[in-house]
Amino acid sequence: MKTSISLEEAQATLLTLVRPVAQGQVPLLAATGRVLGRDIQSGVNLPVFSKSPLDGYALQAKDSEQAKPSQPVTLTVIEEVRAGYVPRNKVMAGTAIKVMTGAPVPEGADEIVKFEDVTREGNSIKLFSPVTPGKNVIRAGEDVIQGETIAPGGMVVTPPLVGLLAAIGVAAVPVFEKVRIAILSTGDELLDPSRDLLPGKIYNSNLHSLGAYCLQLGTAPVDMGIVPDETTAIAARISQALQASDLVITTGGVSVGDYDVVPAALTQLGAELIFWKLDMKPGSPVIAASYNNKLIIGLSGNPAAALITFDLLVVPLIKKMMGLEKQFPLKVSAILTENFNKSSQQRRFLRARVQRDKAMNYVKLTGEQSNGVLKSMIDCNALIDVPAGSGPLLAGQEVSAVVLGHEPGGFL
Amino acid sequence: MKTSISLEEAQATLLTLVRPVAQGQVPLLAATGRVLGRDIQSGVNLPVFSKSPLDGYALQAKDSEQAKPSQPVTLTVIEEVRAGYVPRNKVMAGTAIKVMTGAPVPEGADEIVKFEDVTREGNSIKLFSPVTPGKNVIRAGEDVIQGETIAPGGMVVTPPLVGLLAAIGVAAVPVFEKVRIAILSTGDELLDPSRDLLPGKIYNSNLHSLGAYCLQLGTAPVDMGIVPDETTAIAARISQALQASDLVITTGGVSVGDYDVVPAALTQLGAELIFWKLDMKPGSPVIAASYNNKLIIGLSGNPAAALITFDLLVVPLIKKMMGLEKQFPLKVSAILTENFNKSSQQRRFLRARVQRDKAMNYVKLTGEQSNGVLKSMIDCNALIDVPAGSGPLLAGQEVSAVVLGHEPGGFL
After folding, report:
1. CATH code at position B377
2. Does B79 contact chain A (CB < 8 Å)?
3. Cβ neighbours, 10 Å, residue A154
4. Residues of A in contact with B255 (CB under 8 A)
């Protein structure tokens, strides 16, 4: 087992060990936000038939060639067709069919002239100028040609895509199943926030923050609860979690103290340990193991450290399991707008907020950076990546930042 | 009733007519992505008690004042405390209590010294240098002070906020209820995509694309189905929709043709017509009405026009109803990277994709711009706002664009 490896080595190692989950079919609306399982080819032309974009008269353009204001051409209106109905007649020389918006273009007709551009008297219309064939016609296949790929597998199903799928008659959408992510928190000190607080105890936040993050990603969190600091109990709960999920996340018990029991539980379970500890702050105490081709990732019990390692290390794995094509967060350069007075012996990620101002990205810290502090995560939309061996950071300096996905709409 | 008003006048008029919906309480995980109903003040300090950030010994710093490598100070270890438990003893001069990460700082102690920085023999430890009081202590209230506002009403509940709410013991979160949005599509030509296609018919996409958009926004779409082009049937269905929802959206039947029956249905219902038609392309045929303090907005039946007017006109109303503070989309300037050869007599919104390249926004069109064409909505993350009276647009020209919210993560 490797120890104290870089984030990038950890990511690369774990990414080779996960695969997209299985696929299924869901109804159109339920596909919203899900990941498309495969390329979708259209089985039809869209529109299926040529149709009228306006309320008017379908005619043969050549009939209008001689039309002038002083010498109008007269056509006989032989039928009227609304959207949703099929013309019974063909348009032949000297005739026209009244069509409403969306009605099929009748056979024989090659142009639709607007109501406003003709005069109607009884069963006939008068044309006062020539019309261009095909100008006012929505042609079959204008939007999508039969056989055309309308969306690639791995794409998130957006509302317009739901519309396009509906339009080509796809009522059941092939999507990747929801990735099931079991989350369990270890620690004798932990209480669920629904309970009364007791001396020496704290409310567990990790189950909830990570569960919420899983929901936001479009996965299915499986709440495996709180387990006391006992190796056998943790091993048993991890074993249950493996049954119930595609990926197991634990929090707490991964440092090197007397009661850091998750590594011991993984060993007892017979899981293969992959690495222990990342060379970064916060979130250094991470352990990764695999059991029957499923990963178990043990994160720090410190709330901010747990969220940050989840963001940096676990989210790319989850995105691969979800079937998403794009797994890594955006990295940007930004101008730091305040000092950070500590040196960084070890690589360090600082909670921060990036904002664009016209041509430039600016980034400020979002408050206290201690491992346990959650408040500075609230406004955080990015993590400044401070290389090992850096001195204090100065306002005005250019820094590198990883953009996070907590906030709907991203950073704008 | 006004006609052919500007988008901005329509927005301003309708925004005065909607209010945020009622509030309720939901469990922590279910609050993810919902809108916080009110400011949340913490009822506790966070952490609740001062605690140890590491595995070490709690002591009185003044005991260490004389400690040197050549003359270590010896302290007696009188107890051991793990996270989750409460010390039974006080630390007094000459004593220390072994504490594990997360354990409360025992009374009388003002500093924790790391395991690695002392030597232990039997029941005593040796200190080799002075320690600084308070350096290795996580102080009660360091993250959040009792009474502090941790999040403002109107904020979207993000995963870190779920964590912070859990940490302060909030198990039921006050959020705005889900806005219920009834959607119905009118048109004799429409079939649901689950049906077999028939001659002259088309698959209805608007119910599905708008429903998906409602889901993505975090609202509850109410599917009111397809109604034929009959005034009485439409009036009856709108009446049912009003019962079942906070806002009613219809598609189709809002132009000025013989069969544009939605305005007639609204009149028959006794709804107050607010305006008809917007001075823009696409999506000009929009009608807005109110009935018993609920809005009914009739959008074009053209799939792209329906989505675009939903985006520009309806989404800000929905965001106000959701309780969100920020209701309007971002507007950006961008350099057009291709020509658009048509002149625009009327204000026009073009489907486009904005991308940032370092200092600059660039925008390209996403394909065919006809009212009915859905394909160009798929890659669309912005609408170029072309003012009335514009000539053709040229590559290299600066244009204004409204950024849309279809895509998770926004435009990056």
Report:
1. 2.40.340.10
2. no
3. 17
4. 55, 101
